[in-house]
C-alpha cells in the first residue's frame, strides 16, 4: 500500500492541468455524492477516494479499479461494478474532459506560437534559418569539389592481365583418400 505522502508526491509531479482536475471542487463533491448515494461508511468513502486518486495519478491501473474497490471496501461484485460505473461517469469522465480541454487550449497556443515563428522566418528570408559553421562550409566545398572533378581510372597493365589469367586457371583437385580393404577403425573381436 502506498502512503499518503508518496501519493501526494506523485500527484505533485503530474502536469498542472491534471493536478487542477484532480483537486477541483467538482471532483471532490462528486466523490462525496457517490459515497452517500451508495451508502458507504466514512472509512469506505475515504478508501474510495484514495483508490480514485491512485487511478487518476497513474499509480494503479483503471483496469483493476473494480477489483480494488471490491476488495478494499468489502463490497459484492455487483455493488463494486455499480460504484465503478458511477465513478466513471461522475469523476473520471469529467476529469478526462477537463484535461482534454486544457490540452486543446495548450495545443492552440503552441500552434499560434509556431505559426508566428514560421511567418517571421519567411518574412526575414535574408538570414539563413540554420547558421552554418566552418565545418559545414568545409564539408560543402569538399563535396562540391569531388562532384565537379573528373575521375581517372588506372589503366590495365600487362602484368595485371597475366595475374588475372593465372587466377582463372582451374586449381588441381585434391587427392582422394585411399580405400582400405578393412575398416581401420573397427576393433577386433576376441
Mind explaining what this structure looks like?
- The protein is mainly α.
- It has a domain at 4-119.
- It is 67% helix and 0% strand.
- The protein contains eight helices and no strands.
- It has helices at residues 4-12, 16-22, 25-37, 42-57, 65-73, 77-123, 134-148, 158-168.
- Helix 2 packs antiparallel against helix 6 (77-123), helix 3 packs across helix 4 (42-57) and helix 3 runs antiparallel to helix 6.
- The longest helix has 47 residues, at 77-123.
- The termini are far apart.
- The model has no long low-confidence stretch (mean pLDDT 76).
Q: Please, how many helices?
A: 8
Oligomeric state of the chains? single chain
Q: What distance separates the N and C termini?
A: 78 Å
Low-confidence stretches: none
Strand segment tally: 0
Helix content: 55-70%
Average pLDDT: 76
Strand content: under 5%
Instruction: Summarize the biggest pleated sheet.
Output: none
Q: What is the H/E order?
A: HHHHHHHH
Specify the overall morphology. flat
Could you say which structural class the secondary elements and strand pairing correspond to? mainly alpha
Radius of gyration: 39 Å
